[in-house]
Amino acid sequence: MSDFQLIVIGAGPGGYTAALHAAKRGLKTACVEYREAGGTCLNRGCVPTKALLHASQVYKEAQNAAAIGVTVDGVGVDLPAMFAHKNQITGKLSAGIEGLFKSAKVTYLRGRGSIPKEGVVAVTAADGTVTEYTADNILIATGSVPSMPPIKGLDLPGVLTSDEILEGAEKLYDSIVIIGGGVIGGEFATFYSDLGVKVTVVEALDRMLPTLDKDLGTGLAMALKKQGVSVFTGAMVKEIAPAEGGLTVNFETAKGPGSAFGEVVLCAIGRKPYFDGLFTGEVKAEAGKGITVNEKFATSIPGIYAIGDVSSKIQLAHVAAAQGTACVDWICDKENHMDLNLVPSCIYCRPEIAGVGMNDAQAKEAGIEVKVGKCVMGANARTMIEDPGRSFMKIIARADDHKLIGASFMCSRATDMISEIAQAIANGLTAEDLLAAMRPHPTFEEAMGEALEDLVDKLNK
Ligand code: NAI
Fold first, then answer.
1. What CATH number did the domain enclosing 358 receive?
2. Is 205 a pocket residue for ligand 1 (Cβ < 6 Å)?
3. Catalytic (active-site) positions
4. Which of 167, 326, 425, 444: CA 20 to 30 A from 150?
């Protein structure tokens, strides 16, 4: 008999969710981790950035509070305290995962996991001691690391990844150049510009957030520009060079070369799967950029599975967690009902941005005839009260059967409200179905009702 029925390598959102789910399904489970429980999401990604963005929003609101009749004196930024607050939150959540392991009877193995042969996981502890455990099933959930392409000067001091920026700094930078106008770029541009830092974003493609609806990327660039951020799109970074007091980022555009100066540079141009040194013996799972898996997350080696950033095209915490749960269900021969292809995307800039399903351009490309309902939220009472900036909702349905297929939101609470559309799409609801229940007043959600009414009008024309 093996030591465990399942050993999960990696305690990020994919790994810890899978381990807890396996224990609930009755499997004797262990989870191996050499850093803090919670992985990138909790320690160097989603959660710390949201803690910092909350702090920068409070600062900005306090600065502008007089306009709504609140006087605040001596508003300032204590950067070390901001980062300490962030660390307190991540520390609590990470300890919470260890607590969940304990109560679910998941054995938490501290050390770096590797696979020397089929059915065996070796755990190398911090002191170098190696212990081998046998397992009926092994689930690789080792995540990803920032990707650093071969741009000249990327190794210069002052060029940082999001991992390094999140470690904190004693004082605010005067200026920062962010390479990449994707999710990380958009969130850090919001954070630093809230705090008064001079921010420049350099994005290679023709708009920010290039994988989402066009209106979202252009909306984000407009919101950032309003905050004083310089945004260059269609600008491919070629080189970073040392300069007096910082670095110069040189880029190419269709109109010719350009450059931007920053005290530091953040490189946010994607993440790459991380499985360096995982397979230490003869057995090696097939891999391209990431570990290759089939639709049930099985690798090329029997009994070894992989989920999350290490093997997934979409690198998001909620995707990893959903894949982990599904993979465990399949290992246990249980049904899993989640639609793993329907992935909400959320960016915690201001106003928030969220999208799910197809946008109109993608529908067109797929040859699906659609109608788009829209609500611009200038007259939405909650939006007027909180004044987050230009806000809108777009909802898309198939012209033939009126079933919803996608939505793009840029508004307060977009990241919470997008789930309503995700549930509707997953359950095959029509635009009319989603208008069946009344929406409370005054809420941001009322705009969804208006966008749906606009959609139904267009569908019935
Ligand atoms: P990303 O893929 O979202 O964006 C990278 C951007 O860099 C792209 O727009 C790309 O066109 C641009 N780029 C690439 N090479 C360039 C060059 N040489 N010059 C200028 N621009 C260049 O990747 P990002 O923002 O680094 O995020 C990494 C991962 O982390 C993503 O999978 C993201 O979904 C995830 N993440 C999710 C968050 C959320 O859900 N709120 C928050 C932070 C990260």
1. 3.30.390.30
2. yes
3. 441
4. 167
